[in-house]
Specification:
By secondary structure, the chain is α+β, with helices and mostly antiparallel strands. The protein contains 10 helices and 25 strands. A hairpin with a 4-residue loop joins strand 23 and strand 24. The two termini are 23 Å apart.
């Protein structure tokens, strides 16, 4: 009900004339995240499929929600780097002398407090954003010419990064070159990399979101521009559910005597894998699960280790009620490593809900209205549906067509579209409203249908995806019109 009210309120607000006209007919750019061959390395590496230079040098870039520059490893990066497995972990190497389109820019002043230990250079070159839906097909590319790139000479982090911070130069280029609708971006980081130990791949959508990658409820938050990660949320509770279904809150003073654990602000980041929680919450986590620091810190990120595999889960509850559950396989991986970092009492760094959290969550960012949205990520059997994310609108997931002939035949869309063309906005609002209410009523039915479909789809992950995108996509005409309506 709350979301209903929010929807109405926001849609009324959006009726106000936009101060700037966005062209929300522009399709988004979808760039997937998985393991692939990269330039000058024999190892397949996990990241966003982005090339640089002419001819193309292909890379796998890790998305960062804080760094503003898109960066590449210089060929000499590993000669003086403390990055573990550096030669096969940079996301590729950029040889600038091999690119005919590269132009050095010595006077460029970095927008970042760089983590490349004082040693990086800047220039302009062509970025190539590859869209690659199916392994069997070739990729298509979007060229972003004269993009600002950072070339990392030395440092201790993996240097191949898509910078999606508040002042992202890539997003800015895409907008100023009129390639996407606005400063919007969505991310599912996936879990097909070694630390997460999973198989599910991720995606970036520039100027859009993947409507097949998340479900309701969609939660809205204001960005906190003063934080390094503007994606800041308030955590109100963290509970551990034991295998027998019992819940213990790590903030519960009747369970953890003398604890001063309470609600706290945390920044979303992909710059590290483990969560960094307040000292007292971390202590309670250790007590509840007998977790301990690994004395050798073998994995280099201070993750706590559990004494044995744990079949329970951990649920993080945000102050608006959005709760995200880290399942057992995330809470203790095959080496019993947990996704929670040890923390000293005097540590004053921010608290982070980091990559481990984002393996379960779809993030949608609107840098034009400084708003972001979080929703449960659909991890398996998703159907890729890149959809324009018009600034100042609320992203909605694709809802599977159901029994209803209205929805199946796209008639809701047709009605809205038709009315929108002819009559006044009030009637459009009513139709949209009626359609929405109907859709909501159908949702329970849909859930059952979805469960039935799931079993079947498990066997046809890719093939079924192709067919469904083509034959059962959202009522295209209607959705587009509906979308325009939302924008106003
Ligand atoms: C909006 O973008 C679409 C797709 O790129 C284009 O065909 C159309 O001409 C644009 N409209 C305006 C008003 O710029
Ligand atoms: C993820 O991408 C890899 C290619 O790197 C592919 O082999 C694999 O099947 C994909 N996983 C899923 C679950 O689609
Ligand atoms: C490597 O880094 C160390 C410490 O920053 C420095 O003393 C040394 O000169 C560097 N070596 C090269 C080859 O850059
Ligand atoms: C990116 O730019 C924003 C300002 O737009 C700044 O607050 C943030 O600190 C920058 N990121 C880094 C890593 O310095
Ligand atoms: C880079 O990727 C594109 C798209 O798949 C491909 O056409 C091109 O051949 C690749 N370049 C190299 C050097 O592998
Ligand atoms: C390329 O980008 C730089 C820095 O943003 C700018 O100064 C220059 O004018 C651009 N060149 C062209 C040809 O657009
Ligand atoms: C568990 O996590 C550690 C720490 O990053 C990683 O090195 C290891 O590969 C993971 N193990 C499995 C089986 O996923
Ligand atoms: C424990 O917490 C989970 C996650 O919030 C919830 O789904 C479940 O109903 C709770 N169980 C009990 C017994 O309260
Ligand atoms: C925290 O305290 C430890 C000793 O207890 C000290 O070694 C460390 O430098 C301190 N860290 C900070 C950030 O003050």
């Amino acid at each position: 009900m709350a979301s209903l009210v929010l929807t109405i309120t926001l849609s009324l607000l959006l009726l106000a004339p936009p101060t700037f006209a966005f062209n929300c007919s522009k399709p988004p750019i979808y760039v997937d995240i998985h393991k692939r061959a990269v330039h000058d390395s024999s190892e397949f590496q996990y990241g966003s499929f982005i090339g640089v230079g002419t001819p193309a040098q292909n890379h796998s870039l890790w998305p960062s929600l804080t760094q503003n520059h898109t960066s590449f490893a210089a060929s000499a990066y590993c000669r003086n780097s403390s990055l573990k497995g550096c030669e096969d972990g940079t996301g590729g190497f950029f040889v600038k002398s091999d690119s005919t389109s590269f132009q050095e820019n010595d006077n460029f002043k970095s927008l970042d407090n760089s983590r490349f230990t004082g040693s990086s250079s800047f220039g302009q070159d062509t970025l190539r954003l590859y869209t690659h839906y199916f392994e069997t097909d070739g990729a298509s590319q979007t060229l972003v010419e004269n993009s600002t790139i950072e070339i990392a000479e030395k440092g201790s982090i993996a240097p191949g990064i898509v910078g999606m911070g508040l002042s992202s130069t890539l997003l800015q280029s895409l907008v100023s070159k009129d390639i996407i609708a606005g400063r919007t971006y969505s991310l599912y980081i996936g879990q097909g990399f070694d630390r997460a130990g999973g198989a599910v791949n991720g995606s970036n959508t520039f100027g859009g979101f993947d409507a097949g990658r998340f479900t309701e409820p969609v939660h809205a938050y204001k960005m906190k521009e003063s934080n390094t990660s503007p994606f800041t949320v308030r955590v109100k509770d963290i509970t551990i559910t034991s295998p027998d279904g019992r819940n213990v809150s790590l903030l519960d003073k009747s369970v953890f005597q003398n604890t001063d654990a309470g609600p706290f602000d945390a920044q979303l980041t992909t710059d590290q894998y483990p969560l960094s929680l307040p000292f007292s919450v971390t202590e309670n986590f250790k007590r509840q699960l007998n977790a301990r620091p690994d004395p050798e810190n073998r994995f280099g990120d201070d993750s706590l280790q559990l004494p044995a595999p744990f079949a329970g889960s951990m649920t993080i509850v945000l102050d608006d009620g959005f709760s995200v559950t880290l399942p057992g396989e995330v809470l203790s991986n095959a080496s019993n490593i947990s996704p929670v970092q040890n923390r000293a009492r005097n540590d004053s760094r921010p608290f982070y809900l980091s990559t481990a959290f984002l393996t379960q969550v779809y993030l949608m960012a609107d840098f034009d209205s400084y708003t972001f949205f979080l929703a449960p990520a659909v991890q398996k059997n998703n159907i890729v549906m890149p959809t324009t994310f018009c600034p100042k609108s609320i992203p909605r997931p694709y809802v599977w067509p159901k029994q209803s002939a209205w929805v199946r035949n796209g008639l809701i869309g047709a009605v809205i579209g038709g009315v929108f063309g002819g009559i006044g906005i009030g009637i459009v609002g009513f139709c949209f409203w009626a359609a929405w209410v109907r859709r909501r009523a159908e949702r329970r039915e849909e859930d059952e249908e979805r469960a039935r479909k799931r079993a079947k789809m498990e066997q046809f992950e890719v093939e079924e995806g192709v067919g469904t995108t083509e034959f059962e996509g959202p009522p295209k005409r209607g959705a587009r019109r509906g979308w325009r309506f939302w924008r106003r």
